[in-house]
Amino acid sequence: MNRTLVTCSFAMLSAFVGTSRADSTHPGPINPIDTDAPPSRYSVVKDEAGVWWFQSPNGTRFYSLGINNISSEPFQPRPETDFYNPVPTEFKGDLGAWATFAKQLLLDSGFNTIGAWSSTAIQADETLHTTPVLYVVEHEGTRCLTPLRPDFEEFVLRNVKVALDKLPNRKGLLGVFLDNEMPWYGKSGWDDIPTYTLLEQALELPSTDVRRMGAIDFLKSRHPDIAHLANAYGRPVASWQDLNTEYMMRCTTAAAHSDRDQFTAMLANRFYEVSTRIVRAELPNVLILGTRIPGNAPDPVIRACGRTCDVMSVNSYRTEPKVDVNNLTRFWLLGGKPLMHTEYSWRAKQNNSRNPNSRGAGPVVESQADRAAAYSSMVSDIATVPYVIGSHWFEFADQSPQGRFDGEDSNYGVVDIHNTPYAELLSAMKSTNARAMELHAKTTRVMPTQLPTPKVVTYSPGQHPGRAAKLDLLGEWTHEPEIWGAPDSKLTWNRNGEHLVLIYDAGAQYGAGINLFGPKLSALTNGPAFATDIDGYSHIVMVADAPQGVQLNIVLAEAGSAVSSNSQFDARAGDDGEAFISPPVFGEGKQEAYRIPISSLLKQQFFGNKNGAGRIDMQAIRNLGIQVSGAPRRGDVVVHKLSLER
What we know:
This protein is 24% helix and 19% strand. The chain is of the alpha/beta class. Among the domains are: 261 residues, TIM Barrel, CATH 3.20.20; 176 residues, Jelly Rolls, CATH 2.60.120.430.
């Protein structure tokens, strides 16, 4: 690829960066939808009370209730596994008969939308709508960098045509998603690492890659020479060619973060503008439903999505079956378009497919009754958000108990792998769906006008569906534990089988503690010694036998943490060197289980970076430990279990 083409590509991109901050202080939605225009097909409208809806071509307003992945067989099933495949057995090879069964199950349960990745054999119409995913930039983990390609528009057009060829029947086509869970943070769609963004991802590519060259050109447009950049970033670098991810991850100045933000803004603006323009040309009068953002995204991405798409879409798995209003408020005020909640679910230990639920996003509950209750609670709650116009459950059939193509093995289905419906869940879906329209129409929730005040400490676990549902912290560590404490305290430890025994003298000050390093299997190859990536979990679970009344706290330190008096903290692993502590729990004089939400942790007073972002960076952790203090002053604590769980 010649250098002239690279320069032209960057010049085209730079035209979009100027729009990224124009609305950054806007108090409300941008580019409001013209609700007076007659619908040419499906549309989004706002009623007299200010509540948003989908509207069908015949003028009927509706709230989209759907199920994802309604398919008669799995994608790329693994050999020697059991999986959902009812057509050759139960339906004697008749795909149409299965499609009739699936459609009737949807209608009987009060659903009106066929969600993403579903079979085109199911006949859609104006009362049963479809929402396919186009994947306009294909599937690579670096696809957020594709706007740097000189042939970006041709690339998108080719992919759109391929996707639309697979949709011969457009009847009931409510809208299309451009993509699913794009990795806008750089590492993934959910690892929000301040020093590893799309800019660092681009600089990781080979020197001849057009996307790396485009990133260098971007930096040249913001710094007259390499000396200027080195001064702005606070670290020496000899030449543009020497810029790489390792260098960038050590740079935490305001100038470095500004460059990261603007690079992401440039790519997002280009991606959304070009892809929506091409899709509208190829598929006129069909709604564009966003990109199914996995829980959150950088501000410029949300703004670009809202500026160009008709609807924004968010995938969000939550432990508690209640909507995260603060997060949705952020999307509404930054993007200014109505939202769809396009992926959520609960899995149960008790299921007909023998799913172990060891891989997959979202919480695991005990029974099908618990799944039913969670669905009812979540949909009833989210239906009352006036700017959310749909919610789609993941998914139609259980995954293989031995693992689907990527190892997920979860009870997500409304039917098991034998095509037997989960009657209790479907009954709850039917009754809840029947109320959803009324709940939406009569909501008393007020439209937000101000962004939520950030919490002092925030935590949002990445989905990481490939990780086990539990991570044992008493297994093989990256390093032997370290002991710390007040001058008048003492603590020793030993192993008793699989248990950890702490023999302590807490003293009269702040007690003593033990720092445990993460599992070897989670060790990071970059960053400070012993750093591990243990993200993706919502709770710290400790089962311990401790003396009655003794105080126990969980302590957590990010990979670059150090004493608070330090002027710099090692940011190579992507964290900002903060340290946190849990609210206290107390010994019961017997074996007791303590389940501590990671989101409940507070900043430590004397350790860690006090000027950090206040976000718990579980993707870069140095240690997790236990502090013992209070009375009785001396004793033993037997830790039977210490783990991270969803």
